[in-house]
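User: For my dataset I need records formatted as: sequence, then structure tokens, nothing else. Please produce one.
Assistant:
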Amino acid sequence: GGAHTLGIRSDGYLFAWGTGGNGRLGDGTTANKSSPVLIGTSSWTSISAGAIHSTAIRKDGLLFTWGINSNGQLGDGTITARSSPVQIGASSWTSVRAGATHTAATRSADNYLFTWGQGTLGQLGDGTAVNKSSPVLIGTSSWTSVSAGYNHTAAIRSDGLLFTWGDNLSGQLGDNSVS
């Protein structure tokens, strides 16, 4: 993350450490931690630390987010910071990636891609340039991989084609243009 770290121990337990401002560690506080602290007692399979928020998928496939939420990057329908993990929807999820202030995740049932959070640079991929505080479906394709950069997103569709969208100031979209 921007100033914090997440890790899953071999037994599936989740730990966080670093800057705790606005709850980005998920331990129910806003305190900084210089050594790993246990986050809950569940078993986790996937984590991603954004610049100012955190995301994780529990072993049962449920998605949780926490931290700063000024752009809706937690996906809980608000812009309220959370210092403890909050469940996002009732779906089972395959993967989640946290960008600087946006999040991208694929749903288990159909591998559909959803994004939410800051969208002012097109990083959500929904054809708008506005923030979204709840998950937004991106097309109806099946996706095999997604990655959220600082202000851009990249995803591989099930047919193997790579797609990128969002901020292209430094050419990070790989389309031979800078805008």
